[in-house]
Amino acid sequence: MSARLVPPGARELPALTELRLEVRAFLAEQVAGGAFVPHVDTWLTRWDRDFTRELGRRGWLGMVIPTEYGGQGRTYLERFVITEELLVVGAPVAAHWIAERQIGPSLLRYGTEEQKQAFLPGISRGEFVFGIGMSEPDSGSDLASVRTRADRVEGGWRLTGTKVWTSGAHEADAFFALARSAPLDPAHRHDGLSQFIVDLRAPGVTIRPIISMGGDHHFNEVHLDGVLIPDDRVLGEVGEGWTQVTSELAYERSGPERVLSTFQLLAAAAQAMDDGRLPTDPGLGRHVARVAALHHMSFAVSTALEQHEDADTAAAVVKVLGTTGEGDIADYVDTLTATGWALDEELDTLLHAAILQRPGFTLRGGTNEILRGVIARGLGMRLWPTATGSTTSLPPRRPTPTSSPC
């Protein structure tokens, strides 16, 4: 990538605006009819399988999945418009989020024909729910240190190990698990890793809840005790797991969910100011402007993905700036209460949830500290030692994804 941090984005064409207005009208009807109550951080914490299936029925899931696999055969830009509208209104989208965001594209890129036929139609209908099994206890941000072991047996593999911070595992049907399928070579730690499609209802799978300090349950520990994985449930090539998970990160980091987790809080605060329930504050404009700028940046990354361009560095930029902005919105609204103005029940509920979720914004999907290194490396600004003892600005052979929740 050149020195440009984020590629130039395309303009929103009339067809995209028409789609946006269609989705917006549907969501307004749903809210008015009491189908759901708008909330913050809904892509992680709000599950509603009926709502997800309704989106599938309307053709708003599986947007980039070809029609021969039950998808819509549409574009990343159309998908962006739909996901953005869902997040802006605070809709309950967690049931399909991971499957639609990255499992589907990964299956298209690496899956066998049988795997595509088995899973993609269900994802597009909103009927098949996936999670991600990357993070592990004591691994921190070093995904190459995974200790889940895949042992070769007749007809397949046996997985043994523990995954942690697995969002929605208690609701999901399956997840992608990264495991070490060959002995660790300290000199080549990224080799010998493979991905497996694990049925979360299979014998040997135990799911234990991780309850947040607010009492919510969306994270889990998943213990794999010799779980048998047939050969036809290996994703891609054995030993290529590192390359595969690296390629998935652009989908995971660049979407509007890295910008809009607290948008409902910001919108509610703006409405309260307009109604006289909160004091008018000029600081509101700064946060609105940030959200607007990040919208264009995230849209630009979707444009790059649509054009099959490298978006890893740009996605990291959006993730760092977006998740920081999400947390700043929570802090900003919280400071308004120090003026002595009382919040109504709706605004107080949104603020309370945003503050509780705030610590995770800059952790999940890769910590900001790690991602700044990814950005520096992508711009050729980070020096790496060579075999001769000198340094070079060239990045290492394989980039380093981080081990963290969604």
From TrEMBL:
The keyword RNA-binding does not apply. Residues 17-127 form the Acyl-CoA dehydrogenase/oxidase N-terminal domain. It comes from Terrabacter tumescens. Residues 386-406 are annotated as: Disordered. Residues 396-406 have a biased composition (Pro residues). Residues 132-226 form the Acyl-CoA oxidase/dehydrogenase middle domain. This is Acyl-CoA dehydrogenase. Keywords: Oxidoreductase. The keyword rRNA-binding does not apply. InterPro entries: Acyl-CoA_DH_CS, Acyl-CoA_Oxase/DH_mid-dom, Acyl-CoA_Oxase/DH_mid-dom_sf, AcylCoA_DH/ox_N, AcylCoA_DH/ox_N_sf, AcylCoA_DH/oxidase_NM_dom_sf, Mycobact_Acyl-CoA_DH.
